[in-house]
Design goal:
about 160 residues; Rossmann fold; seven-stranded mixed β-sheet; three-stranded antiparallel β-sheet; about 30% helix; globular; Flavodoxin
Length: about 160
Amino acid sequence: MKPTVVIYGSSTGTCQAIAEKIASKLGVEAIDVANLNEDVLKSHDNLILGTSTWGSGEMQDDWYSGVEVLKDVDLSNKTVALFGCGDAESYSDTFCGGMAELYHAVEGAHVVGAVSTDGYTFDDSDAVIDGKFVGLALDDLNEEDKTDERIDAWLADIKPSL
């Protein structure tokens, strides 16, 4: 596997815990997006980016500065995988929408890891493009029992690209 880093934005700790779980399974480092800089991006070929979703589908707040760092680096030679945390019961119409903002921010990169919407219960999500989530969507609040299985299946899917 080429140099890989997991970068997350988390306000309540849920996305951080998931990022650390993903990083542990891959044997790589997880860093808070608040600590993101160009050197981190330039020294890693693979970026696994995660955000929680807030309000009407926005990224976690620290990601807005993080996106500016992403825009300052040429991502065309990077492989990017995305994951998002959301609440499909209370926010069924914006479930994991923050992933869509990350997806658009990494335009030009090789994005891997789209996930079928099968098995999810939600009304709408900006993170669904062409019938699939742009990355791994997780509802650890209401479907905690599915989180590990979803992470393992997603990692098995993206590992060959890393």
